[in-house]
Amino acid sequence: MELPSNEAKVVAFGLFKADLNARSLTKGGASVRLQDQPFEVLGLLLERPGEIVSREEIRQRLWSSDTFVEFDDGLNTAIKKLRTALGDSALNPRFVETVPRRGYRFIAPVSVLSPVATPEPESQTEDVVIASRERSQITITQPHHPVFWSTVALGLAISFLAGGWYYRSRSGSDSVVSAAPIRMRPAVAVLGFHDLTGRRDTAWLSTAIAQMLCTELGAGEQLRMVSGEQVARARKEVAWDREDTLEKASLTKLRSRLGSDYVVIGAYTVVDSPAGPQIRLDVRLQDARAGETLLEESDTGNQSELFALVSHTGQRLRDRLGIDRANGDHDAQIRASLPKNVEAARLYSEGVAQLRDGNAVQARDLLTKAIAIEPEHALSHAALAEAWTMLGYDSRASQEVQLAFNLSQDLSRETKLSIEGRYRALAHDYPKAIEIYRKLRDLYPDNIDYALVLARVQNKGGLPKDALLTIATMRQIPGTASHDPRIDLAEASAAETLSDFQRSLQAASVAAVKAESEGRTQVVLEARAKQIWDYDRLGDFDKAMAAAKSSVELAKASGNEREMATMQHTMGHLEYDQGDLPGAVRDYEAALREFRKLGALWDTASCAHNLGVVYQDQGLTQQARTYMEEALRIQREINDERGVASDLDDLSNILLSTGDLDAALRMKQEALQIFQKLGNRMGESITLGNLAEVYLAKGDLAAAKDSYDHSYALKQQIGYKRGYGYSLSGIANILILQDKLAEAQTTANQALAARQEQKDESNIQLSRAQLAEIALEQGQNDVSVSLAGETTKYFDKQHAPASSTYSYAVLARGLAQQGKSGEALTNAQRSLTISKQTGDLITNFGSQLALAESQAAAGQKPAAVHTLQALQSRAHAAGVVRYELEARLRLAELQGDGASAQRQLDEVHRDAAARGFLLIARKAAGSRAQIAAVAHVPDIPSARH
Hints:
- By secondary structure, the protein is of the alpha+beta class.
- Among the domains are: about 10-110, Arc Repressor Mutant, subunit A (Orthogonal Bundle); about 185-330, TolB, N-terminal domain (Rossmann fold).
- The protein contains 39 helices and 18 strands.
- α33 (about 800-815) packs parallel to α35 (about 840-855) and α37 (about 880-895) runs antiparallel to α38 (about 900-915).
- It starts with 9 loop residues before the first strand and ends in a 10-residue tail after the last helix.
- One of its GO terms (biological process) is phosphorelay signal transduction system.
- It comes from Koribacter versatilis (strain Ellin345).
């Protein structure tokens, strides 16, 4: 469908705006140069977003019938120039998709920025392009009561692109769907009630009264009630005196923070009497826009008649707001907001208060007691489900929310649907959860929270692209809601799931700026956490560390213990990435203590996992295994598949280091299957690289090379630059063993360059140690010794025993080749001593090989033979093919008898060549030729087998 010809056509997509009349393209306000023909192609695609535009249609638009050109070349050039201007890729398109043998399609969400139209007296219509397959028409009706008149300013009508959103039904036909009209309801925030007596035994009434009053005012769905959770968060970020009428400045902040048109605030007093406790309730209704007090109401009643007292107050507020009184049908909903039993109501209210303060353990205990007294109260089960979720027990949360759903018959339609959506999501019934939250969004389109949850569930359910389309609709909601920083956070999460870290970073940065300007500390911290992650994955460690440090300070200032622990955990991650292992241990352990104290299981598992990784790098295998197994146990308990996959991958690294290759292989294959099922390409890429190490240990060089190649390709696709060095270094290692030394040197240098770009100092030194090994195999002993010597000093300072072991082994072998047998022995012994501390069997094999070569160079043949025999036996038992072959080669070279040595070398050559270990095969052939020459035995080629 074409753009209306009588409108100025300024089309927005991503960061770009294209003025189709002025033929100009901008990105973030900066001009982008684009020639006429590529711009013409862009305009044609933007007129029909989501549709295939055939090559013939483009030809007719660009070239008239009497123009003779090489059409294919011309069109290909125009498309290439367009993609270059947009920063797009044919292989990974974000904007222009090639449809083979048919044409092209514009796949990004599109909106048209049109001129201001004349206001309509009653309503306006927006045609909002919310995806490429369905059109949504939104009508905004104005309230008519005088109190409402300034709720929504609707003087301007905005026309958007017609024909953008088509929904492809399962039958394949297209249908146009129009959304229900949006009625912008007045928003009311109940800020809470202050106990003027300060009695601890009646403090629970503050939460109870507020919740009942919210239910009372929300009955009939004429008002949009700001949730208690949002109010609790705002209380930490916007200070107000709960006893007095709010000043206009405070009201303005609250309106900005909560999107509320009105606020309800008040106090209560409990006085004991012979007839039972008497409650005096004082309530004030204020207009958050004008700063005026609209109603002050006081009422008194017996605590046993709390429902009647709150209901009467609620009716007075409804009258002042000009909405219909709640009828008898709503009484059951209002009564269901609290347990009937007073003690259960107290426990429930205290539990909810603890939940809103982030104290999940205390909330769990209180709510469990409330349910024991009154098990039929639905909202108690729903709140307990939330507590279990915060503690990481999704399975228990699922059980509780199912009970809430089964007991929800007396609740409002909105609350029942919310509970069901939560139930379906926790049960991993994502299609049904998405259906429920879409219904909530459509029923209550002025409440952005439902759209946010819908996007989150779509992302969690493996539909991040659908989540991005939902996010696009939120940006078109009238009023300030469309600028909510949580929308940008939702986009960052979806982009991260798609491994589009650049887009995630951009969205998170926008969210951080918006949230900071609004004083929304929690959202700022969430946004910065995503920025840190994205900077880390994109390799900008300086910015990641700067963001982390500022987040630590902000978390401390907020007094939020969980956020402080989270930021310490993040600092540990960055310190680990920069090779500061002691620093990483310090921050990980501090965070782990706090997470355990808070009972935060998911965070505990994540932190224990990372601590296990660091301990493994430090060579503390048993400690590493203990922490990793703790993480795996928790992740299985809370049913976190992604966490389970990560734990399996890293725990199998420990098994690999101890020589249990079969178990390591099974674990890695299980981890890989989980990551592939989840569509987690980063996890898949990392596991593929680690899987290659198992294949290498088992002697399957072809499988190892294929796994490394696949890992590197995936990392390139998703832009995971930090991982490039790992894959390239692994590939270089395979090339060394395949006797492709020049190619190995090139690849190792590429790994070094990738790590230098990331400022990854620890791995930079590891790459230099690898280049030292390559130089050694190329006969450049001086170069090898120089490089290896530098790396040993670095790793000693960093307390990185696994890397130190490798560097000292390479250094010892180089010194042995130089004839410096004494120094060689010293360094080989140093390598062996450190390797024994690590408990890493394969690293230890490398140290034993270096020691044997040093012993042989020093003329200590019996000692060398003894070392090699032990190495051969242990490598054979563990199934580590390379070191068994290396040991056999050196033993054959040390044999005194020419015929026996040649026979053994023949066998080594044959077995090594069959396995693809061509460097060992070449050495075996060379040694055999030397022995044959000395013994004057003809050098007969090895028999073929």
